[in-house]
Amino acid sequence: MRRAVSDHRNQVLELVRGAWQRRLAGAGAVQTVSLAGAVQRVLASDIAAPVSLPPFANSQMDGYAVISGATGSAGATGSTVEFDVAPPVPAGRAAGQLPPGCAVPVMTGAMLPAGADAVVPVEQAVPDSFAPFEPGRRVALPANVPAGQFVRAAGSDIEAGALALPAGTVLKAAQLGLLAALGIAEVPVLPRLRVLLLSTGDEVVAPGGTLGPGQIYDANTTLLSAALAEAGCEVVSGRILADAPEPFARALAADLDRFVPDLVLSTGGISKGAFEVVKQALAGDGTVRAAVDFVSVAMQPGGPQGIGSVLGTAFLGFPGNPVSCLVSFEMFLRPVLSTVLAVPAPRTVLNVPLRLPAGGTLDSPAGIHQVRRGWYNGAAVLPMGGPGSHLVHALARSNALIQLPEDLIRREAGQNVEIWLL
Amino acid sequence: MRRAVSDHRNQVLELVRGAWQRRLAGAGAVQTVSLAGAVQRVLASDIAAPVSLPPFANSQMDGYAVISGATGSAGATGSTVEFDVAPPVPAGRAAGQLPPGCAVPVMTGAMLPAGADAVVPVEQAVPDSFAPFEPGRRVALPANVPAGQFVRAAGSDIEAGALALPAGTVLKAAQLGLLAALGIAEVPVLPRLRVLLLSTGDEVVAPGGTLGPGQIYDANTTLLSAALAEAGCEVVSGRILADAPEPFARALAADLDRFVPDLVLSTGGISKGAFEVVKQALAGDGTVRAAVDFVSVAMQPGGPQGIGSVLGTAFLGFPGNPVSCLVSFEMFLRPVLSTVLAVPAPRTVLNVPLRLPAGGTLDSPAGIHQVRRGWYNGAAVLPMGGPGSHLVHALARSNALIQLPEDLIRREAGQNVEIWLL
């Protein structure tokens, strides 16, 4: 009995949510990091503003700070009013009291002198540019300036004590900029999910090694390490384990002790063949305390899946082909990470026309959710390679996954398909 | 005379392209990095496949490898043919010659014995499961198996010597997985753009410090460092320089010597006020050999912009407000980095309805490209805060930039606007 893609994703959701809650309940889960180290991290608690923004009333323009009332009363001749020009307020200094009858030159962002409640832009003054301060200078400004004109009131962006950012906020440039503006140099962030990555197979050789007959290079460790890193996880180890149940189980138990991961992710060894190391090692033969279901999901590629726990740690088993691994990651683990951990951002989903040779079709077995790889050129998507799970070069030339759900058995050229942008 | 946004972006494009070409022409521009260190880097040269993928013909199923011709000739009784079961091919070992009259158990991915040209899935065999090898076992397989059935031919994904990935490819999980599958452990990648980041102003204090009267915290270094890092640049230094032309010019010259950046990016000090340190220092007074245009772009916020070179290094000057900095980065620098360096990926652009109180409008001055910040909830975008460039808290609660181009002076609730997803 095959399991639906959505059902399996829900089970992965429960698994990862449980692992994450155990991690958060553990000691030292929340980390305090500098702003520079907090890019793409998730805020662990609400942050209240320690100061108001702006911290003080300041000018929105280069101009003259005045008491608005003074522009509508004594000294008005026609449409302008004359003021003595007081010394300017230097940036970064306290502004004193506005001297009576004076206008004070202020640059954008400078603190308003006490008493001033409006700014007249220098372009509206006569003369319409600043000159070095000297006693006796006068300036003519428009009459009847409204109170508050070109003034940024203290706290008009946020008041001290107000919620600046809620827990769960993903910290990107704007959010980190706000924290810096508030004077906050370090923030509490949620930990990264720790993933122990295991490849299996006597036939796999690490890149850089030499292939013997019948051997292939291990693509999965590299592929999934990169995918997990891009998704904000911490890969605590990625290695190839021997393709026999006993040594596999021993090495896994040792790695669990050493790395204390939140999640174990293995590749390969879970299918229906005669030599399926992960399945054999975790089948509950007493070597390892494990409760893993080996199931068949109605998905192609990536049908065989393992899910459960090993020695109390959450466990996912992906199939051994690199394309199956990537599809399994994108269909099951990545969306769940987005939901549970707030990072990574979900994939962009589009409905776009299918590009095929005239009369061509894209066919998918009934009852199977087929995931094809394709190249989206901004207007339409062209399938790359066939459905085969060994086509890693075709995958590498793709920038999208084409979704052909269970009830969709054929799409023709020009018909719309759902794609997920990689 | 205000400059159009697109004209300024084109000038930034020329500036960054020139800086990048000088960098690439320099010694040691191309770096060789491990696959684990190559995530989101850009391939510096074409990569040819050193081996074929798959390296050898292998089975697509768990089943029996046979000579297809043998299933259509002698030994056929009705719809099936009987074979002796030969010892299985262990994973990672060379498969020998297929013995005459035999079928060889093969697991998915295992090398086909020499002579075999087809695989019969175990489900179609009688018996339909594998048993441990012993001499004398027989298996009945369907007659007339077509040649090539369930065989992945050597080189069917990519042939040795063919182009695996072209120069300029952005290396993500799938591309790195392909390189690993090809046995390649290190790749030549393009360098990161080195950016020297400078904040100016006597009024700015680094986060964590104590504010005096009239002072504010420096948000720009944090905000732009994060934005540049997310965009794949290397920020070689980010510091606050004194707000006087002479010390600013001296410190800048020293930093250029020390860090040898590709691009200098300053914030603040380029407007029309009486104290504009960047403008004064780089106005060609002899202190620093500079050729910088200080221009006014028809954009709000972010109108004042500086562009040119300082001591032969490309220079951009953004205005001093954090919101203006982010908007300047997103409108000018980030799209240019995407074009010239291939990373980051361009922002997703959507046309979505505007969410406003009933009867509300979003107004933009004629002839000015206004960039508002907003929250896109998946269906519509709600403006956050007003147009003011000091509203960094409103920016931090936004996930989109709302574009109101020069000729657009009003949008009403429910009308569509273009947004860029942050």
UniProtKB/TrEMBL annotation, chains A, B:
The keyword Magnesium applies. InterPro entries: MoaB/Mog-like_dom_sf, MoaB/Mog_dom, MoeA-like, MoeA_C_domain_IV, MoeA_C_domain_IV_sf, MoeA_linker/N, MoeA_linker/N_sf. Its cofactor is Mg(2+). Residues 196-339 form the MoaB/Mog domain. SUPFAM superfamilies: MoeA C-terminal domain-like, MoeA N-terminal region -like, Molybdenum cofactor biosynthesis proteins. Pfam families: MoCF_biosynth, MoeA_C, MoeA_N. Its EC number is 2.10.1.1. Pathway: Cofactor biosynthesis; molybdopterin biosynthesis. It catalyses: adenylyl-molybdopterin + molybdate = Mo-molybdopterin + AMP + H(+). It comes from the Bacteria. CDD domains: MoeA. Keywords: Magnesium, Metal-binding, Molybdenum, Molybdenum cofactor biosynthesis, Transferase. Belongs to the MoeA family. PANTHER family: GEPHYRIN, MOLYBDOPTERIN BIOSYNTHESIS PROTEIN. Catalyzes the insertion of molybdate into adenylated molybdopterin with the concomitant release of AMP. This is Molybdopterin molybdenumtransferase.
